[in-house]
Backbone:
């Protein structure tokens, strides 16, 4: 009976001992950290300030440059597997704190608008220089001065021209003595060449009387821009009586930057605003791009002829000209997404795996906060719009930028070699 009791006690004690050993082993196994589990602690190579990424620190703490904590650079970010992938991976919590924003690359037409100051000027095609064409004596000057508007046929001055009086007397003598038609025609042609008008010659033939006073009239509608004669003056045949310039249509001159001059393809792209008449619009009759570029301002002159039937528009008035146009269909991204270092342009894209990948791009043009690209991105890719500086610094530290340049991700294409001209939208 006693031996049986001893055996039972021995079995109980042995069972407890074995159970304790097993429990201790299981606990030790479960409690042992595994390098293959997600709970393994990441080892930092160094710490750095994202605003000064080239300075490294051997322990965490506050940045001596900015009021912010130093950011760790981990070993597993530089292992063979990470180096074999494009771009970098950033802690999602950090990206959330930075407020990163991204947008998709879309295909569309870049709306281009260029607004430049302009001015109104006389129409140089409507320009008349009035001369007597023979020596004479001014009898009367009509009350006109520079700046006055005149109509065609308006009297300017009245004068006596001895040469015309002599030629008229000769004509009348030939006509009375029965001269031949050839002689009569010759003397009348001499009067024309001396400057006598067809109207005055017709009056001579009708009245058969020599005229001693002649009136010089305006040959066109316009504004007098030169007129300085006075009664009693002698006038030579090469003396300018008056200069008259037209204002209908009136010219508008504007200077376009030479880098934008290729946008000028048709008249429907222009919009004209005249501050003096903000509620009125004026029809564009014609436009020209002058063939030379100003070597100082690097601009090209554009000249528009504006309809001015009521002569509301005056030479010297200010104006504003807007050029509106559209590009061909091409990749479009927000201009904020472009990082321009001077010798290259790049963006930060977000891959499907959540990695930030820098890519080289070729920019065609930028307008209204949008940038059109010749190459570098495809439709549907995601570009980072905000927080670029920190990500770009991290990409530089990790060598992602160097790998990007080695791969030369920008592939030359026919479109790269020859930019396509913009197709213009109509107003």
Residues:
């Amino acid at each position: 009976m006693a031996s049986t009791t001893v055996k039972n006690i021995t079995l109980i004690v042995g069972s407890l001992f074995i159970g304790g050993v097993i429990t201790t082993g299981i606990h030790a196994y479960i409690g042992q950290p595994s390098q293959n589990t997600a709970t393994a602690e990441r080892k930092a190579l160094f710490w750095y300030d994202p605003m000064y990424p080239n300075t490294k620190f051997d322990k965490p703490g506050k940045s001596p440059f900015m009021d912010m904590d130093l950011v760790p650079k981990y070993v597993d970010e530089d292992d063979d597997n990470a180096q074999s992938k494009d771009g970098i991976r950033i802690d999602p919590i950090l990206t959330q704190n930075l407020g990163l924003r991204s947008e998709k690359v879309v295909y569309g037409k870049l709306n281009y608008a260029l607004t430049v100051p302009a001015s109104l000027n006389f129409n140089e095609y409507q320009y008349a220089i009035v001369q007597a064409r023979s020596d004479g004596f001014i009898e009367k000057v009509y009350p006109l001065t520079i700046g006055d508007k005149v109509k065609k046929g308006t009297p300017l001055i009245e004068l006596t021209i001895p040469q015309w009086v002599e030629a008229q007397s000769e004509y009348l003598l030939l006509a009375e003595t029965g001269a031949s038609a050839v002689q009569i025609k010759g003397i009348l042609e001499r009067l024309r060449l001396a400057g006598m008008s067809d109207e005055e010659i017709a009056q001579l033939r009708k009245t058969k009387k020599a005229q001693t006073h002649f009136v010089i009239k305006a040959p066109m509608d316009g504004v007098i821009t030169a007129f300085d004669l006075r009664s009693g003056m002698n006038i030579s045949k090469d003396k300018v009586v008056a200069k008259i310039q037209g204002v209908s249509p009136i010219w508008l001159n504007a200077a376009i930057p030479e880098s934008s001059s290729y946008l000028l393809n048709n008249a429907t792209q222009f919009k004209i605003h005249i501050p003096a008449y903000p509620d009125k619009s004026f029809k564009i009759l014609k436009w020209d791009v002058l063939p030379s570029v100003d070597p100082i301002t690097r601009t090209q002159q554009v000249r528009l002829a504006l309809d001015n039937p009521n002569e509301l528009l005056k030479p010297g008035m200010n104006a504003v000209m807007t050029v509106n146009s559209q590009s061909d269909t091409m990749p479009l991204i927000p201009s904020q997404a472009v990082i321009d270092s001077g010798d290259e342009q790049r963006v930060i894209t977000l891959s499907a795996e959540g990695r930030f990948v820098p890519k080289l791009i070729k920019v065609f043009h930028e307008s209204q906060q949008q940038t059109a690209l010749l190459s570098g991105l495809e439709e549907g890719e995601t570009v980072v719009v905000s927080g670029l500086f920190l990500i770009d610094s991290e990409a530089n530290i990790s060598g992602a930028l160097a790998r990007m340049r080695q791969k030369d991700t920008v592939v030359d294409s026919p479109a790269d070699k020859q930019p396509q001209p913009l197709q213009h939208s109509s107003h």
In short: Residues 28 and 343 are 59 Å apart (CA to CA). Confidence is low (pLDDT under 50) at residues 9-13, 16-40, 78-84, 409-427.
